[in-house]
Structure formats: structure tokens, C-alpha cells
């Protein structure tokens, strides 16, 4: 049995877990998956760790490409996901339809949770900058909670530590017991150079690009995209 090591962003975890199980059943392979934010995984690779397949953000992919750590011609875009807000199931859904409504909702909220920007998660970095643009960054600091690095902000809603959770929609949907309020108003996949299981890795990538996989991605709040040519 071929054992394939995979480093994957938590942004696709809700869909990837299901797709990985299907791949193992159909191909007789075993996937050993390490989950984390893209910056966390990039840092581990830069420190010398290796994986057969990488599922990261486009920024992470580009960083490793420049360092020659990705097999040329293997990167494709799997899906995209917007940043959304969620509440505990059954709780009133606040108005976030406009920047003004979002500002008032955030100011009225007793507590919010989003990924700590210093950890490098895309949604956390984006939302922190958004708070600055809205002019309420200082007001929000005392009532902001952060999940553990690589964790899900919606879990803090379930425990009562936060009233609102902000993260990529796919990450919010990974947590049972919360409901999506909506998106805020207003890429992913590779084989490393030197992989001992390059062909199996490419087979995994192919399975993640299938029409069946696209349906699963959509059901988990992700937006399947067309292939992007590799440099």
C-alpha cells in the first residue's frame, strides 16, 4: 500500500476529508494528512519537512515555487472561498449587508472570534485590515477572541466565548452547530520536488479536480475553479 503524505490548509478541510477518504478507498493508498494554516505549513517546509502533496493558498504556493520546492507544472487551482460570518444555530442573524451595517453589527456584538493575524491565516489578516478600514480596530480589540493556531473560530461560538465567528466560509461550515450569516460585503494544490510518490500524488490531484469532487467542494462552501497553468 502506497503511503502519501499531504500538507493541507484547513481552508479546505471540510471537503478534503471526504475526498481523501474516497481516494483511499478507490486507489488502495493511505494518506497521512497534516492540517494547518498555509503560512504554518510553508514554514514547516522551509524548515526542512517534506510532503508528497501540498494544498495551500496561492501565496504559499508562489513562495515555495520561488524556492524550487514544488515540482514544476503540477500546481492547479482547486477552489476559492470567501470570508463570512457565522452565529450559533438558532441565534438571530445580524445585518451585514453593507459596510455600514457590518460596522454597527460588530460594534454591538459582545464578542467576536477570528484567526489571529500574526499566525498568518488569510482570513485573519484580511479581517484585521478590514477593521482598520472601518475605523473600529481599537474598539474591537477588547472583545476579540482567537482560536488556537490552525483552529476554527466557529468553535468559540459553540463554547459561548464569542457571539460572532469570522473565517472562510468553508472553515465555518466545518463546525457543526453554527449558521452562516453571509459573506462580508464588498488556491490550492501541488507536488513537491523529490517526492517519492509523485505519480500517486498526481493521481490524488486528478481526483480532486473531478466533477464529483467539484460537487463536494460546492457543498462545503467552496467555489471550484478552472486549472491555472503552472510556471
Provide tags for this entry.
single chain, 231 residues, alpha/beta, 5-stranded mixed beta sheet, 4-stranded mixed beta sheet, globular
How would you summarize what this structure contains?
The chain is of the alpha/beta class and 231 residues long. It has helices at 13-27, 38-46, 58-66, 99-108, 122-134, 137-140, 154-158, 169-173, 198-208, 211-219; strands at residues 3-9, 30-36, 53-55, 79-80, 83-88, 112-114, 144-145, 164-168, 178-183, 190-191, 223-224. α1 (13-27) packs antiparallel against α10 and α2 packs parallel to α3.
Distance between the first and last residues' Cα: 32 Å
- Secondary structural class: alpha/beta
- The largest beta-sheet arranges its strands as 7-6-8-5-9
Give Rg in angstroms: 18 Å
Give the integer mean of the pLDDT values.
83
Helical content class: 25-40%
**Beta-sheet strand percentage?**
15-25%
